[in-house]
Structure formats: structure tokens, C-alpha cells
Amino acid sequence: MSVYLVSFWYVSFHHSLMYKTTSQSSKISTHVLAIYIAVGPFILIPISVQYFGQIISSLIVGRTKDVVSIVSSIIGILIVIPYLWIMVKAYLITLTFRPCSFMSIEASPQWKFFFTTLIVTFVSSLTTYFQKWPSLAMICISAAGYVYCGTTCFNGGNFVLELHQVMVLGGSFLGFILCCMNLYALLSLKRWNEIFFEIFIAIAVACFLLTQVYVRLRYKRDLVILDKSEESQDITLFVSKGKFRRVVGTGYTFCHPACINFSVFKAAIVEWPESIDLWAEYAKFVAIYPELTPTLIYIGQSINALNLKDSISTIIMSNIGYIMNTRETKITPALTSKISKLNKIFNKAKNRIRNIWDLILQGSVAEINHAIKSANEAVELADVEVSQLKSLYLNNRFVARQYAKFQGDINANAVEYKVWMENVIQLQAGKQVCADIVHGLGVFVFPSLPESVEGSDGKNMMSLTEMESVEELNDEQQAEEDANIEVLATLTRQIEKQRIPAIKCMYMSTCLGWFFTVFVPILALIIYYTTFREDLNAPLVFMYGISYMRNLLNMLAAFTAKFLFEELPDPKSPEEKVTDVIHLQEGFPLTGFGDDVRSREILKYLAAQVSSTSSMMSSLRSYKFGNELLEKARDMVFGSTIVFNFYTNRSMEYPMKSSVAQIAALIATHIGSLITDDEITYDDARGSDYLTATNNNDLATEQMSSALLVCLEYILKQD
Fold it and tell me: Where are the transmembrane segments (predicted)?
């Protein structure tokens, strides 16, 4: 998970760097960013926090002390915290209704919901290895988190959709009830059964249904308050700023007249003139309509007059400036300076291109490569600058004219030049050529809102002075008459169709050379490596089985003796056993002993491993028949070449020829018979099962050691 989050950091950085240097974004980058913003913060980060909490819980109780877990937890925390900061400070606080999960009018409900989700997830994951009382404290913290999450639906700008309000509020109530049920189960030491689950499902259905009824009733009350406020012009009916911001959100959802004409906001800013949250919500709805740009400017001036030095004011002012740039239709001093700088870049690019033709006419072939490279750099710089300016001023005729000039004079794209000259004419007539993104997002989130505000001139985006309009229209018409666009387009297409045989041959030879010298050898190596890896892995499987079986036989013999000492009474003190269970250092791994220290349980686990280990050894039976070394190893393991002694007592034994696999199975059988007795006596220590199980491991382990040496010799002889 950390690798994925780090990789997204890299993609974001690469995307930002590419946009900064070229003013363009690849489609793949935009799709990756869109998918991550929709999935990453709300799914992947909580999953990461869950894993980090489990690791930290195991570290606290001493279950895990490896360095990898500690390092991964630190890295995970260092990754999650910046993501949380980005979501709160850079993504959620905006004056545009940017598409996002759980869309809200203000940023606070989103980041509080997101932050509470992470806290509850982390605290809940800590209970994985905690005992009773620490778990009790964590459940109480989770319950408090759910209560805090539920308050996001009561103060300030709420979630836009009714479904989201029901999910957050109902889910908070359900989470609190679930914590109470877990507290009962923890204190009473009872586990959840079928009845608990049935009760939980019934409570969940009831929570969401009752929450939906409550939300709809609150909608009705909010609309009644707006009606009374519109009639009486009494802003005190809203009681508080937080309730006002929530009620206004309901009004825009249902297109209430008092909200559409912004009369409630005008009264509210008089009542609470220093509330930055109120000004921000006012600006967010005003920004939907381009014709209310003067009102947006007034809001920006009012916020600036408050002299607030917090980050929210800075972000709001930055958003207002960006929105005003996208809707600026006149020439401003700042735009004049940018166009002047752009003209210098254009002149530089045209001079570099003209220099190429001069060198061709002079026959200076040695200098032409450097001139072409310099011209390409100048053209790319001009493209970056004009594209950046065009993205900032979407519907500005002066910027559009500069872009058309770039396409015609520098890029030599006659088709684009014609398109943008037509766009300039449209902009001079007061029409838009690019859709207003802020307006589109606002109308998409609130479909019931009107396309324009009544009483405003939404058709004319700008005013032209008489002298400027006449001169510019005549100049543009004359320029369009002089430009033979069709001829230029035909010449461009002919140039693009030209193919130089030497360059074509160079491309083909490069591709073929890469294919035969790089791709084909790599493919051959992959195929050969797969076969070679299988030839090496197959012996490793049965060698591991032989090695593990050798260890099992020795461990079974040792723990069988230890088992008798733990079960037999001490002759000097019959109330006690001869020895106690094995005492190991705290934190010693017991995976190889079945996670137990009692010899009876260890023997059960080890005896059960004999059958699975025998199946691993059995792959040697059919591996490469005819090989001299493998036939020898096969005979050592599966041939009846060693003696197995069956003991009836200490003086009576019956030898028989057996194989290693058979001896292992017989030893496991006798041990299983021995440990099934609930009470062990000294007769068992002299019995057949104990003597047979502990006196037949020497020859078998020696035989398996010899077989492993033969298998190793086989591997070393492989090419």
C-alpha cells in the first residue's frame, strides 16, 4: 500500500512538472489523477491506516519486534499525514463545486468526515492484540469519534445530496450503537451469536430509515424558515451562523427564491460581517454566475478588508483571482504586460526560424543543425507561454488573437489560425468560445438552479469602445481577406506527406536492429530461464522435504523423552512431575512447534507434519528416471535398505528392512499411540511405543544426509 501511495506521489510530481514546463497534460495523467482522487483518499488510505494500527498494536504488546514492521509503520505514517494535509488544505477548500466523494457546500464536513474515519479505523485496529481494558478504552474513543462525525450534518454547509447526509448521519448513529454493543460483549465476556447479528441488522435498517425521515423533515423546516425570512426580512430567524449556512444549502438545493436572488446573503453579511465562512459560502454561490463577477469582486474586497492572515482567506482570495481571470474580457495592465512579454517570445521564435532560411540560402550546412535546434526550442517556449495564457483567460479576445497569431505566423497551422480568428470575431461580439467551467460545475451539482440570474445582462460579457470595435473589425476582415488559408493548408499537407528515403531506412533499420539484438535475445533468455528455473526448483522441493524429515525424526525422538518427563511423577515428590514445560525467552518464535510449549501439543504438531513432508519427498520418485545420481538418491530414500527395529520391551526387538519413508510413518504412528493416553506411567516409558519411536532415528537420518549429498552433487553438475 505504501508503494502505491509513493508511486502516486511520483505520478503527481511528474504531471505537475510536465504541466509547468509544457502547459499541457497527457490524457493518461488526467485519468490516473481522476481515478486516484475518486478511490485513493477514501479507500486506500483507510486500508493503510488499518494495517498500520495492527502493526503498532502488535509492537505495543510485544508480539512483533522486527525492524521491518517498525520501519513500515513509520513510512506509512509519514505518507498518510501529507495526504491528509493535502485533502484538507489544498483540495477541499475551493470556491468551485469540484467533483469529489461526499460533495459538500463547505470543506469542513468533508475533512471532518475523512479525519474521523481515519481516527476510528486506526483506534479500532489497535484492539487487534490489546487485552480487555485497553480495548475498552479504544472502543470508547471510537464511539466518541462517531458522535463527532454525526455533528458534521448539523453545523455549517452540509453535504449536498440527501443520500450522503443519510449515510453519514445514519452511519454515525449506527457506529455508536455498534460500539455500545461491543462494550457489552467485552464486559460480559460473551461472543456475538446469531441473535446479535439479527439485532444489528434490524438496528441498521431502522437507523437509516429514521435518518432519512429526519433529513426530509429538516428540509421542510429549512424551507419554512427561508419563507418566513423572505417575508419578514428578519435574519435572526436563523438563530446562528452555522444554522444559516446549512439552511441556505437546502434553499439552493430546492431553488428557493430568497437564495436565487441572494437576498439572504445580503442580509447575513450585514448581521455577521466578520464571518469568513459566511463570506466564503456567499462567494461560492456567486461564482456560479459569470454575470455576477462585480459582486464577486466586492466579496473579495470585503474579505481583504477584514485583514485576516489565516490560510482560508488566502485560498479564497486566490480562487477569486483565478475565477476573475477566466472571465476577464478586457485588456488589463497585468494582461498587457503578459502580452508584451509574449510578443517578445514570438519575435525571437520568428527570428530563429528566419535564420534557418538564411543559412540555407547561404549554404552554411555546418551551422544549420544548431539553428534548427534553437528554433525548435524557441517554438516550444512560445507554445508553452501562449497555451498557459490561453488557459488562464478562456474568453479574452486579446489572448485569443495572440494564439491565432502563434498558429499562423510561427506554427504555420492554417486550419487552427482560421478557427481562432473566427473565435476572435465571436468574442468581439460578446459570445463565449469556451464553456465557463465554474458555472458548469455549479449547475451540475445543483440541477435546479437557473442558467442565469434574473435582471442581469448575461449575454454581453464585455463592452467595446466605439473606436476600438470599428478599427479591430476592419483589421481582422482585411487580414482574413489577405490570408490565402486554403493554399497554406494545401502546402502544409504536401509537406507532411513528404518522405525522405534515407530517414525511412534509418527508422526501419533501427527497429529491426532493436528487434533482433534486444527483443529476441531477451525473449530467448526469458524462455530459457523459465526452463532452467524449473529444473532447479524441482530438486529443491524434494531436498527440502528430505531435510525437514531428517529434522522431524530427531525432534520427535527428543520431544518424546521430554514428554515423558513432563507427564511422569517425580519419585522423590509424587505430587510434582519430573520436569516442567520448556521455558523459552520471551518473544521466542514458536511457529516450528505449533505455537505451544507443552510437549504433548508439540508432538501432535510434529507428527502431523510427517505426512505432508512425505508428500514433498515423493516428487523424487518420478523425477528424471535414468539419471545415475538421482537413481542412487531414490534408492536411499525409498528403497528398503536400512533396518527398522520393533521393540516389545527393552530386551526384545525384531529387525526388518524398511525405507526412510516407511520408518518415518511408523515412528509417527507409535508416537501418536503414546500421546493419546491421558495418564502416562513408568510402564509407558518401558513400553513398545516409546522404545520404538526413540531408537530408530539414527540410521534414517544418516541415510537422508547421504541422499542430500547425492542430490547436491546432481545440482552442481547441471550446466
Answer: 28-47, 67-92, 113-130, 136-154, 166-189, 195-215, 505-529
Contacts of 68 (CB under 8 A, 6+ apart): none
Domain-ending residue, one of 391, 412, 434: 434
Distance CA 376, CA 397 (A): 27
Question: What is residue 577's three-state secondary structure?
Answer: strand
Residue 693 and residue 557 in contact, taking contact as beta carbons nearer than 8 Å:
yes
CA distance 577 to 339: 96
Grid coordinates given for 714: 546432481
CA distance 254 to 163: 15
612 assigned to some structural domain? yes
**Grid cell for residue 508:** 526501419
Q: 588 and 709: one domain? A: yes
Q: Give the integer Cα–Cα distance in Å for 442 and 94.
A: 12
374 part of a folded domain: yes
pTM for the structure as a whole: 0.62
Q: Which three cell numbers stand for residue 99?
A: 467533483
Identify the H or E element spanning 657. strand 653-658
E strand spans, 289-421 = none
pLDDT in tens, 565-624: 888 888 888 778 888 887 777 777 788 888 888 888 888 989 989 988 998 888 888 888
Phi and psi at 64, nearest 5°, equal -130, 135
Shared domain for 539 and 413, answered yes or no, is no
Return the closest-CA partner of residue 390 out of 377, 373, 407, 374: 407
Query: Are 567 and 694 in the same domain?
Result: yes
Average pLDDT, the chain: 83
Same-domain pairing of 569 and 703 = yes
Question: Please, are residues 616 and 542 in contact by the beta-carbon 8 Å criterion?
Answer: yes
d(CA 425, CA 405) in angstroms, rounded, equals 14
> Distance from CA of residue 472 to its chain's centroid?
52
Residues 417, 558: one domain? no
**Residue 382 belongs to domain spanning:** 333-434
Q: Report which residue type is found at 616.
A: M
Taking the C-alpha atoms of residue 573 and residue 502, their distance in angstroms, rounded to an integer, is 102
Last residue in a domain, options 414, 434, 454: 434
Distance CA 211, CA 203 (A): 12
CB count in 10 Å sphere of residue 573:
9
Angle of helix 311-327 relative to helix 437-445, nearest 10 degrees?
110
pLDDT tens digits for range 329-346: 888 888 889 999 999 999
Residue 588: burial class (beta carbons within 10 Å; 0-12, 13-18, 19+): exposed
699 and 560 within one domain: yes
Residues of 95-111 as b/e, b for ≥16 C-beta within 10 angstroms?
bbbeebebebbbbbbbb
Q: Report the CATH number at residue 541.
A: 1.20.1420
- Contact between 692 and 645 under an 8 Å Cβ cutoff? The reply is yes
Q: pLDDT grade, residue 179 (50/70/90)?
A: very high
Q: For residues 459 and 480, what is the distance between their CA atoms, to the nearest angstrom? A: 26
- Spatial distance between the Cα atoms of 557 and 250, rounded to a whole number of angstroms: 78
* Same-domain pairing of 546 and 399: no
Considering only CA atoms, which of 71, 53, 50, 49 is closest in space to residue 61?
Answer: 53
Q: Is residue 498 part of a domain?
A: no
- Number of domains present in the structure of the chain: 2
Same domain flag for 404 and 541: no
Q: How far apart are CA 170 and CA 182, in angstroms?
A: 18
Nearest to 398 by CA among 452, 460, 332, 461: 332
DSSP state of 291: G
Mean pLDDT of 171-186: 90
Q: How many residues does the chain have?
A: 719
